[in-house]
Amino acid sequence: MIIQNTKELLSHGDTGGRRIVLEVLEAGLRASDPYDNVRRLVRVQDGKLIVGYEDEAGPQGQEPLVFDLSQVGHIYVIGGGKAAQRQAMALEDALGDLITGGHVNAKKGDRVQLKRIEVTLAGHPIPDEDSVEGARKILEVARKARKGDIVFFSESGGGSALLTLPAPGISLQDLRDLSRVLYFEHGAPMWDTNAVRTLLTVLRSREVRYVGEATFIQVSTDERPPRLRVHVARKNQAELSSDDAYKHAIEILKRYDCWDRVSESIRQFLLAADPQYAFLTPEERARMHYYRVAGPEMMLGAAQSRARELGLNAMIVASSLSDVEARCVGEVLAYMAQEIEVYGRPLTPPCILLCGGELLVTVGESTGVGGRNQEFVLSTAPRLAGSSRAVAASVDSDGNDGPTEFAGGIVDGLTMNRAREAGFDVFQELRNHNSSGVLQQLGDAIYTGVRGTNVQDLRVVYVGDP
Known about the structure:
Layout: H1 6-9, H2 15-31, H3 35-41, E1 42-45, E2 48-51, E3 65-68, E4 75-80, H4 84-95, E5 101-107, E6 118-122, H5 129-144, E7 150-156, H6 159-162, H7 172-185, H8 190-197, E8 215-221, H9 242-255, H10 264-272, H11 282-285, E9 288-294, H12 296-309, E10 313-318, H13 326-343, E11 351-355, H14 372-384, E12 390-396, E13 408-412, H15 415-421, H16 426-431, H17 435-442, E14 445-446, E15 457-463
Parallel strand pairs: 4-5, 4-7, 5-6, 7-8, 8-9, 10-11
Antiparallel strand pairs: 1-2, 2-3, 11-15, 12-13, 12-15, 13-14
């Protein structure tokens, strides 16, 4: 079982509804693992290295790449992100001693699982010294590559923190403070946060720049569903000129009232707009071979399929409901559950509503501990109170919700009474963003451990038969 404390979660409350919800979560989380797809993508046959799917074109329609191994020099594997080590493990299992060496940065809390590729466990969501040291080692490996070599780049969400290598004049503390102020305190979406902090580093999103004439193959677990616009893009980062990218970063900091909160060194670096540290040029991007091996649509599709196997009407409400405050979304979906329970619309029960994406928790100066999934779940509890049919749950596919050890949580119509009996004022705890303390005390926090993937979150709202 991926959810390791199922017995505790089923020891109280609406156990029938909880069991169904946990089964749906299990199916979705299982499908978020990129390992099998990487093994299908990369294989050795008859002296050839083949990168591509055997019976179909890749997700982007690419024809397979075929390399005569007698003509290949070295094969390196580098990377970073929450899924980087899991993907690299699949590459190790596919290529064995054909791999010369490599280095990836994975999230602290994971365990080192690779044998031929070195691993640094680094800080996330706030980068730390290990993020920097591991990124330096990755850069060293990349610079070894020569014409005739192949460099696999294993990456996923989380890489912006895990691959932190500050640009000249920028300190690690500068970048730590930037993340804390812009993302946590002022509630900037991750897309806007990364548009700033990636410019302030030398490695993330520019790895191909350092491998010379070697072949560069990027293997990615993507947080974004295909073809969906997942955030309000004022600028298309890939199309920005060097000068415009820096202006865009300055605009973001000013939009969230953070320009005067970041360090002087960051302000001066962005104003200098040095083109050598800007994003890739179209010519550099053209040198990359990109393969998408996992995404949220796989997790959501598997959850929906399992729900239907259980005889439920199952609707994916939004595969990327992101950049909205978690408490607001929790309240809306709880209202929808009540509408289903009373009027049988927009679905007839028994049914399940599914959502993906990453919500926001703008903490300001609050002192509570939680994460977007736990805050979402706890915010549904008041509206679900008294229901004998509704259950809500949410988990982060990577296994850690916010700065906690929990993946998320689960509540039902009995949660509010149980919280009051335990001495909690749920509304006050939500104002202080202390969802984790409540759910943990009630035995409603979901634990999976670090999972080695990242396709954002899975939210489930269930309404049973009358």
